[in-house]
Structures are given as C-alpha cells and as structure tokens.
Specification:
alpha/beta; Rossmann fold; seven-stranded mixed β-sheet; two-stranded antiparallel ribbon; globular
Amino acid sequence: MEHIDFGQVAKSYAKAREDIPVSLMDSLYVRGIFLDGKKVADIGCGTGSLTRKIAMRKADVTGIDPSKELLQHAVELNKSKNYTIPYLHGTSENTGLDDSQFDIVTVMRAWHWFDREKAIAEMKRVLKAKGTLIVIDSGFLAGSSVVEKTFEVLTKYVSDGLKPAGAKAESSQRINGFPAEWFHEWQSNGFELRDFYKLNYNITFTKDTWVERVESISWLAGLVKDVRNKALKDLTESLSDQETFVIPHECNVCILRLQE
C-alpha cells in the first residue's frame, strides 16, 4: 500500500485538521464511553486534534504517530494550549506501548493507512481485557459548488485520479465510508461491534482556510512540492472571493469491544 508523507505538509495539516465536530465527544458519552480517568492511546494522532479533545475529558491519553514532523506540531500545540500530553514516535503496528495497559484505543482518519492485520494484533496487545477500540473517519462531502470546483482543478494534477485514500481505494464495497471487509477483520479477530453511526455537520471556510484544508489531504500531500504548489495556486485562482464557504461534512464512528 502507498504511504503518504504528511510531514511535508505539516503546517497546513496542523491548521486544517482541527475540524472535529463538537458532537463527537458527546456522542461517545451517550453511548457509554466515559473518558474521565481512563487510560487512552490515540494511534495515528497526527498533530493531536483528537488527542486534545480526549485530554479535555480528563483521560490519561498518549498520542502515537509515525511522522516526527506532525508530532513536533503536536508538542508545540501542547505548549501553546497548556497541555501535558505525551506524544511518542511509533506506528500502529509497533506502538512501543506496554502490554494490556489501555482502556481505550482511538484511531481517527488513519485506519486506511495501517497494515491492518498487524495493527489489529497491536491493538489487542496494548488493550486491557474487554478494552474498547474506537475507529473514526470524517471528511467533506461532494456536491457543493466549492468541492466540485476543487475536484475539477485537482484532477488535472493527480495523474491516477482522485481515488479514496489508502486501503479505501482497494475496497469494492463501503458502509458509511468504511470498507465492508474491515468489519469482518475486526470481528474475526475478537472485536465485537458495539455501535456504528454517522454524524453530519458543517464547517465554514474562507478561501484561504479551504485551500489549506485541501493541501492537507492525501491527493496533494503525495505530490512533489512544485506540482503541489502549482495545483494550490490554480485552485486559489479558480475559487470565488466570497467571504465564506459552508462545506457539509460527515463523521463515521465505529465502537468495538475486545472479547478476549
């Protein structure tokens, strides 16, 4: 599977990936996911957008990511936002965390980049008995004029097309954005599906913040710098100068419980 180096767009990533819906944490709470006092590992944490929200709920949370550049931004945000979250360099397949120490593992917008067989084994290793795995994905929806114009421009620069990221590109069937085979993989490896649901929300962007959001996605993060900059310049010139754009988004959440 292709791996994208998001570290080369770390600055835009840090700004653009704070778009987690306010309703997400409340939706977990009403489903019996209580974070206060729990030990949580946020795998593929990036710049820590979800990690910080978990810390706000008084969990003992650790962030893990393979990108040293993204982790550097997470540490800097620790300082500016008065957090003391530990961030460690590691992968989903080799987190470096101790055995059976975590009540909850969270993964947001990252499962499709993992070696899933090895990642599942690692989640089982670090979770306590009956521990919880929460896999989350979110992103903007097609249909709005801004998104359609963005697709039109980027298609000129992405030679293999605007295909889904990572393992999603290999899947022929998806359920609320999740490849159908993931559910079988989880369940056949001892994770019981406890809940699966969708949240819809809107985010308001200026032209500049929308272009930053686009730069942080895999279609552009995988391009060489000169081509990426040319694509972003083209996109900027193609969009209107209206004050703001309201872009519909969707967040999908899967809650699993380790049965072993």
